[in-house]
Amino acid sequence: MPNWIDRSCALRTMFVLICLTPLASRAEEAPQETGGWVAFNPKPDQFSADSAIDLRVLLNEKQAGDGGFIAAKGSQFVHAKTGEPVRFWAVNGCPGKDTPELKHSARVLAKHGVNLVRIHGGYFDANGNVDPTKIRHAIDIVQACKAEGIYSHFSIYFPIWLEPKPGTPWLDGYKAGQKPFAALYFNSDFQEKYQQWWKALLTTPIDNSGRTLLDEPAVFGAEIINEDSYFFWTFSTGNIPDPQLKILEMQFGERLDRSGDGQVGRCEASARQSRGGASRVSRAVGDGESADAAGQRDRCFSGGEPARFL
Known about the structure:
Elements lengths: L2 H26 L27 H4 L10 E4 L2 E4 L5 E2 L3 E3 L6 H13 L4 E5 L11 H15 L4 E5 L32 H16 L15 E5 L18 H18 L3 H12 L16 H12 L1 H6 L1
Parallel strand pairs: 4-5, 5-6, 6-7
Antiparallel strand pairs: 1-2, 2-3
């Protein structure tokens, strides 16, 4: 491991220990009536130039992106322009409702050795449409962090942030309060809407120059989706409404049919027997489906077979 990386890790660890030491000593002096608890209420940081523990000037770049976009080289991240390796000390952030607050928060993070923030939030309104105000705020976060040598990583979609209203054409079948778990993986209409969010975020001009976040080397990366998959605990027939489940089952059945392994035929025959001759395994969720047929559907499409097939 390069010496500069060892030094970077050591400095950040030292900073954390220094910050915790005063709290430990104060805890020993805490009055008995507080149960040993100490209020953490520090004075506003003035960012004094003679601070012995300000990591901003020791570790972070003058501004993020000075070495070009971040790229991968082997097992390391590097600056694309210089080829110099970089290691990140990251947090979720950056808090602040306006530019002054964002600048202050970014300075605090930089002092603590942070050089990457994960901007975790959606850029859509209650109807799932692009929210320009949220886009502008995201741009402000990137610019405030960039000035303190902090890169930005975007995470723009978590299913619990979205509640499709009844009758939503691109997410049909959801009831009030239901979340669209797994839908982004198979619903092409929803995928199109999702792509609109990314397009708005990455192509909205930063300023009058016409530059966008696509042109900004201070943007580290983009996270496709947070905590959702076919193998996550939220993937179940209870969380996926009938119209959406039919889309998924159709796709799964068609894929099995193309694979030529006979799985569709086995499920088809079993489902036909359970339904007394009715054959529609590709659209297995139907009105009046018997308990036996529903069980066969789950075995063919929602149980062990998908895992075996994948």
